[in-house]
What we know:
It is a single chain. This protein is α/β, with parallel strands linked by helices. Helix content is 33%, strand content 14%. The protein contains 19 helices and 14 strands. The strands form 3 sheets. The protein has a 5-stranded parallel β-sheet, with helices on both faces. Strands 5-13-6-7-8 form a 5-stranded parallel β-sheet. Strands 9, 10, 11 and 12 form a 4-stranded antiparallel β-sheet that branches. The longest helix has 20 residues, at 447-466. The two termini are 30 Å apart.
Amino acid sequence: MADPRGFLTTDRQLPERRPVDVRIQDWQEVYQDFDARSLEKQAGRCMDCGIPFCHQGCPLGNLIPEWNDLIYDRDWGQAIERLHATNNFPEFTGRLCPAPCEAACVLGINADPVTIKQVEVAIVDRAWEAGWITPQPPESLTGHTVAVIGSGPAGLAAAQQLARAGHTVAVYERSDRIGGLLRYGIPEFKMEKHHVDQRLAQMEAEGVKFRPNVEVGVDITVADLRRRYDAIVIATGATAWRDLPIEGRELTGIYQAMEYLPPANRVQEGDVEESPIDVEGQHVVIIGGGDTGADCLGTAHRQGAASVTQLEIMPRPPQERPQAQPWPTYPMTYRVSSAHEEGGERMFAVSTQRFAGDDDGHVRSLELSEVEFVDGRFEPVPGSERSIPADAVFLAMGFTGPEQGPLLQQFGLTLTERGSIVRTDEYATGMDGVFVAGDAGRGQSLIVWAIAEGRAAAASVDRYLTGDTNLPSPIRASARPLTV
């Protein structure tokens, strides 16, 4: 324990966000720099608990007290080694993970938890700047080949682990750039894409081959893929979005969130000059109160929307941890993201009843009503109906599983009642040599679970190919988070 009194003498502190009126004029990340000495003091708040529940809160099993202690002692070089021991991409999780580890922090029982997520991202950012992160190619090749379908966090984690084990790995991605939702679903203001690019460059130097613009099942058949490779990992994610089949859904101007966010990201990549969906001067309504909805919110602010309203069918969460969600579970409390801080109205316990449009067939308003939970379902509150203007509507209501299409049809795999691909505890499907990792098998979940599953699936593939493995396997496929 680096500072035995750190949790008593130092208050929790996070880096400040750039002023709203400044940051909405650009697409850069919202946080200002946090000086190293302040961060070291934050790491010193770690209690080095006898039972570190933060390990259990983190699906990756990050060695959090160890690298907190190293940072307090200013041993940044060793800290990145301990961080990479369990997490391939801490620059992603340090920016995008909701930090269930902090919810499980023992200090959080009766005080503010340690700023685990901030320490994590500071370690990896400094390591990149210092040149400590270098390619780790295998000493020899096994002669085995593996195809990974999908280049999101699960696919990339599986690919990197398998390549380091000595297998020849190719990652297939149907989009024109590698990165999956990291590339096109996460706005630049949450994670600038040079973080993705530098990690991909490391993986290429380790021998991973990337195959963008190739849709498995269309551009190459599953049969061809099985002939070419000794094993296959399906990591396509849960990209089948949930729709809202109500009156007026056919009107133009109503989009899925993942029809809106990728073009905006392509503008920032320099691939196109402007997005085909630009809401400058428009009244925007976002249906769905989660992270994807907040991503749409921040994007609409930067495009210059006249107003933005975000609707959520659930009641407003409480400020404090509910009794039904005790420590160390992840509590559903009221949170204000950087996008919410930038403006817009949030409405809770409301449901959209219908859309209304103009003579040209474009949406102009939506009718909503307040709802209450009765006998296991949401029911409209009589007399609470009202209409709000809506020139553009974005549906951000989550995802139901992997898309139904040529890939799944050609694999002929069985789906669960929830729409995800059936698999064993070892990530294996009913087809010999075919494995599933991430949201395609788990259902919509967190980036930290995707990376953990990619790492664990890689260990199962390695064992399948060689009879044994030295790769870590943090979780079994049947595992479910305590907190989410």
